[in-house]
Write a structure and sequence with these properties.
The chain is an all-alpha fold. Helices cover 71% and strands 1% of the residues. It has a two-stranded antiparallel ribbon. The radius of gyration is 18 Å and the shape is globular. The chain starts with a helix and ends with a helix. The model has no long low-confidence stretch (mean pLDDT 97). The chain binds 3-methylbut-3-enyl trihydrogen diphosphate (2 copies) and magnesium ion (MG) (3 copies). Residues 78-79, 82, 88, 90, 151, 155, 180-181, 222, 236 line the site of one 3-methylbut-3-enyl trihydrogen diphosphate (IPE). One magnesium ion binds next to loops.
């Protein structure tokens, strides 16, 4: 088995057991497993792994699992809350009924809450074999990326809750994309790098930039796929952004210009990646899969 496949196989086992170990009530545990072990692409754990691997090709997979688990738990919480009736009101996620549809709204809120705290339990727990100073740094990166300076503010803008947000302004849309999606993706890259013990500020800044670009690209793709792909392939309701009158890159620029912007950002991304002082072949191989994604 290739190491990357081995990582994901180990990750699936680790993630399921992290949840079963830390939940008290069987019905809640069932809902937590439903929200997490349901066929997500695991993009954030993979990015964490491939960045760790690029800076230390001999890194032990076990060392990456806690951080990867924290990232995916945070991401799954964001999806469960994003789908709630008060937000995007979605019935379908990863090809299955959304958590509030399958269980109840209260269950979905609590599942999200539990997954968010699970993230920080994983990063701070004593069985995570990592220097305390690095653990604190990881917690800092994840909390900044996901809180009111990051993902939560991005979701706030996405929900049109800020009267200052201008949906006809490309910078406002870019900021919303960056915050709601890009920051967690960038955190995934940065946290993988941090695990290798490297402590080079300039390099860290480059990785932040790379992560931000991957994040913006990822959300632009998400907006494009919403209008170009079927519900069956997406595993979520196609055409939902238009139905909800969301501000997306498509509503601002139209499909053709959005695809052009995507290509410009991809070119910019590879320029910075190719300048990294390590072998990036394996990382680029994984990124090419993201660039071709259909869901
Ligand atoms: C969907 O994320 C929401 C966005 C941030 C665009 P993913 O496309 O990573 O969803 P899963 O985890 O594969 O289901
Ligand atoms: C979701 O953006 C971003 C977060 C969950 C933080 P979207 O609302 O576009 O994601 P999908 O399309 O429902 O997956
Ligand atoms: Mg949304
Ligand atoms: Mg949504
Ligand atoms: Mg979307």
């Amino acid at each position: 088995m290739h190491e990357a496949d081995q990582f994901i196989a180990e990750f699936q086992k680790f993630f399921a057991s992290a949840i079963t170990k830390r939940s008290y009530n069987n019905r809640l545990q069932e809902a937590l497993l439903y929200a997490t072990m349901n066929g997500g692409k695991r993009t954030r754990p993979n990015l964490c792994y491939f960045f760790a691997y690029s800076f230390n090709p001999t890194i032990d997979i076990q060392q990456v699992l806690y951080t990867a688990g924290a990232l995916e738990a945070l991401h799954c919480y964001s999806l469960v809350h994003d789908d709630l009736p008060a937000m995007d009101n979605d019935d379908l996620r990863r090809g299955l009924a959304t958590v509030h549809k399958k269980y109840s709204e209260a269950t979905a809120i609590l599942v999200g809450d539990a997954l968010q705290t699970l993230s920080f339990q994983l990063l701070s727990c004593s069985s995570f074999d990592c220097d305390d100073a690095i653990k604190v740094k990881l917690i800092q990166i994840l909390s900044y990326a996901s809180g009111a300076q990051g993902m939560v503010n991005g979701q706030f803008l996405d929900m049109h809750l800020d009267p200052a947000f201008d949906k006809k302004n490309i910078d406002d849309i870019a900021l919303m994309h960056q915050q709601k999606t890009g920051n967690l993706i960038s955190a995934s890259c940065q946290m993988g790098y941090m695990l290798t013990g490297y402590n080079n500020l300039a390099l860290h800044e480059d990785i932040k930039k790379i992560g931000n670009l991957i994040g913006r690209i990822f959300q632009i793709q998400d907006d494009i796929l919403d209008v170009t792909q079927t519900t069956q392939v997406l595993g979520k309701t196609a055409g939902k952004d238009i139905a909800l009158e969301k501000s997306t890159i498509i509503s601002l620029l139209g499909l053709e210009q959005a695809q052009k912007l995507l290509q410009t950002l991809v070119t910019e991304l590879y320029e910075i990646i190719n300048a990294l002082p390590v072998n990036v072949d394996v990382l680029k191989c994984y990124l090419s899969l993201i660039m071709l994604r259909q869901h």
